[in-house]
C-alpha cells in the first residue's frame, strides 16, 4: 500500500507508525474492492485523531483507530450501496458514549447475536466506559469492558436503520426519513452500581422491545 498519510505524521512513534501501517493493510484487504488506499488511509488517519487528544494509553490508539475506521468504512459501503447483508443496523447515541449507549449496545449484541448490527456513539465522548456500568452489565453476564467511547460520524448515522438517542438533545444528528427513538433514561455517570441497576434493567426492556419490532428474535436462552 502506498504510504499516503502516515509519512507526514511527525507526532507518531516508530511503533505507532508501524502499527498503523499494519492496520491500513488489514483494512485494505477488507475494503479494496470498494475503496482505494488513499480513502482507507484517510479514514484511519481521521479515526486515529478522534482518540489521540484524550487517550491515556498511546500504544492502544492504533487498535482503536482501526476498529473505528472499520466501522466507518462498513457504514460508508452500505450507504453507497457496495454491500448490504440485509441485517438491521441500530445506532445508540448518548452524550459521553460511556454508560447508557454502551449498556444498550451490550444488550443488543448479546440478545441479537449475528442477526443484527449494533453501533454506538456520543456527542461528547468520554475517556473510558463507566466502570460502574461495566460492573452492572457483568452481573448480567455481559462484558462491555472492551468497548470505548467514540463520536458518531455522518456515514455511521446514515447507515443506521434506527437511531436511538439518550439525552444528547439538540446535539443528536438528524437526517430526514430516518427512524428515530428517544429513550428518556437517567444518566448513570457518577452513580454506584446499585443505582445503575434500574437504568440497566429498563435499557434491557427497551432493547428487547426494539428487537421485537425489528422481527429479530432473541438468541435462544437469552
UniProtKB/TrEMBL annotation:
The keyword Cytoplasm belongs to this UniProt entry's keyword annotation: no
InterPro entries: Phosphatase-like_N, Ptyr_pPase, Ptyr_pPase_sf
Cross-referenced CDD domains: LMWP_ArsC
Pfam families named among the record's database cross-references: LMWPc (PF01451), Phosphatase-like_N (PF21234)
Record key words, sorted: Arsenical resistance
GO biological process, one term: response to arsenic-containing substance
NCBIfam families hit by this protein: MSMEG_6209_Nter
Protein's recorded name: Arsenate reductase ArsC
Amino acid at each position: 500500500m502506498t504510504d499516503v498519510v502516515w509519512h507526514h505524521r511527525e507526532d507518531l512513534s516508530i511503533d505507532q507508525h508501524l502499527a498503523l501501517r499494519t492496520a491500513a493493510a488489514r483494512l485494505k484487504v477488507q475494503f479494496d474492492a470498494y475503496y482505494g488506499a488513499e480513502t482507507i488511509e484517510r479514514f484511519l488517519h481521521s479515526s486515529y485523531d478522534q482518540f489521540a487528544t484524550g487517550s491515556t494509553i498511546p500504544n492502544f490508539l492504533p487498535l482503536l483507530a482501526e476498529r473505528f475506521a472499520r466501522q466507518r468504512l462498513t457504514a460508508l459501503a452500505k450507504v453507497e450501496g457496495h454491500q448490504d447483508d440485509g441485517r438491521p443496523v441500530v445506532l445508540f447515541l448518548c452524550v459521553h458514549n460511556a454508560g447508557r449507549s454502551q449498556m444498550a449496545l451490550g444488550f443488543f449484541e448479546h440478545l441479537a447475536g449475528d442477526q443484527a448490527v449494533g453501533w454506538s456513539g456520543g456527542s461528547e465522548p468520554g475517556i473510558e466506559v463507566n466502570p460502574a456500568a461495566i460492573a452492572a452489565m457483568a452481573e448480567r453476564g455481559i462484558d462491555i469492558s472492551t468497548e470505548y467511547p467514540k463520536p458518531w460520524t455522518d456515514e455511521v448515522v446514515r447507515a443506521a436503520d434506527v437511531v436511538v438517542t439518550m439525552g444528547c438533545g439538540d446535539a443528536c444528528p438528524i437526517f430526514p426519513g430516518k427512524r428515530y427513538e428517544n429513550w428518556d433514561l437517567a444518566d448513570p455517570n457518577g452513580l454506584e452500581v446499585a443505582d445503575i441497576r434500574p437504568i440497566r434493567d429498563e435499557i434491557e426492556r427497551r432493547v428487547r422491545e426494539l428487537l421485537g419490532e425489528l422481527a429479530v428474535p432473541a438468541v435462544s436462552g437469552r
